[in-house]
Write a structure and sequence with these properties.
With 97 residues, this protein is an all-alpha fold. It is built from 3 helices and no strands. It has helices at residues 9-34, 36-66, 72-92.
C-alpha cells in the first residue's frame, strides 16, 4: 500500500532540488574544511599506535629467536615492556577501555 502522491509536489520538488543540492554541497564543504584538524589528530594517534604495534611485533620476533637460550628472559621482559607501551598508547587515544 502506498500513499497517494499529490500532483503538485513533484513539479515543486524538481524545481527545488538543484537549489537544495547547491545549499547542501556548500554546507558540506564548509563543514569538511573544519574537520582536517580532527583527521590530523586521528592520523597522529594511528601512527603512534602502529609504531607501538611494530615494536611489539619486533619483540615477539626476538623472543621467538631467543627461545630456549640465555637471551629468552631478556626477550620476554622486552616483550612485556613493549606490550605495556602499546596498551598505554591505545588507552591514551581512546582505543582500549
Amino acid at each position: 500500500m502506498t500513499a497517494p502522491i499529490d500532483s503538485r509536489v513533484d513539479p515543486l520538488a524538481r524545481k527545488l532540488a538543484p537549489v537544495v543540492r547547491e545549499m547542501l554541497l556548500t554546507e558540506v564543504q564548509r563543514i569538511a574544511a573544519s574537520i582536517p584538524v580532527a583527521r590530523d589528530k586521528a592520523r597522529k594517534a594511528d601512527d603512534e599506535i602502529m609504531e607501538a604495534c611494530r615494536l611489539v611485533a619486533r619483540a615477539v620476533d626476538r623472543l621467538s629467536e631467543a627461545k630456549y637460550s640465555q637471551r629468552e628472559i631478556a626477550a620476554r621482559r622486552e616483550l612485556e615492556k613493549t606490550a605495556l607501551h602499546l596498551g598505554r598508547a591505545m588507552r591514551r587515544h581512546g582505543r582500549m577501555p
